[in-house]
Amino acid sequence: MAGKSDQRRPVLPVAVPAGLLFGFWVALSGKLDAFHLSLGLITAVAVTLATRRLYRAPPQPMPENEFARAPLRWRHFLIYSVWLVWQIFRSAIQVAKLVLHPRLPIAPRMVRIADDLPHPIARLTLAHSITLTPGTVTVDCDDEGMVVHAIDPEAAAALGGDGGPMAGRVRAVFGARTR
Predict the structure, then answer these.
(1) Residue 22: which H helix or E strand, with range?
(2) Confidence at 73, pLDDT banded by 50, 70, 90
(3) I need a labelling partner for 28 at 20 to 30 A (CA). Which of 6, 73, 108, 145 fits?
(4) Domain residues for 29?
């Protein structure tokens, strides 16, 4: 009998992404009748089941058993999320000003950011946060840090050599002390 229970697959790795997809679907569709809700739930579960192998596909930032060990501080994560949305908004305005300016004062440059983040997921969070912010794109990541393309000197200066305030906030989210 113990062999059967050992062969069961955990429900959580399917339930969490399916629940998130379903919630996103409900928020975007606005349909709250039984037919549409059941269709959305079935679709969310089907998409999760169809794509779950992709989470284990190479390249992985770390071994699969280490993902659960990321020391995430939820209160800091929520604060960081709100701050990031604000930064995205501010950067979008700045990029719009650059693009709409008659002389198009774009001076792109590559910036190397030193990496001292406490966890590979923290590094991944910083890289994606930089890319989400208009005017900056993370081009490469390695063990020493990351290379970022910035659209102008102001965007490059905001990153600095250590990732600037964004890296400090990511460090706080993952339990490291900020500088």
Answers:
(1) helix 12-29
(2) confident
(3) 73
(4) 10-57
C-beta atoms surrounding 98 within 10 Å: 19
* 45 and 116 belong to one structural domain: no
Instruction: Let me know whether 105 and 43 are in one domain.
Output: no
Q: How far is it, in rounded angstroms, from Cα 76 to Cα 70? A: 14
**Chain Cα centroid distance, residue 124:** 7
In the chain, the amino acid numbered 116 is D
Residues in a beta bridge with 110 = 149
Tell me: do 163 and 77 sit in the same domain: yes
Here the contacts of 145-148 (C-beta below 8 Å, separation 24 or greater) are: 145/112, 145/113, 145/114, 145/115, 146/112, 146/113, 146/115, 147/110, 147/111, 147/112, 147/113, 148/110, 148/111, 148/112, 148/113
Quick: pLDDT tens for 135-160. 999 999 887 889 999 999 888 888 87
Does the pLDDT value for residue 45 go beyond 90?
Answer: yes
State how many domains the chain has.
2
76 and 129 fall within a common domain: yes
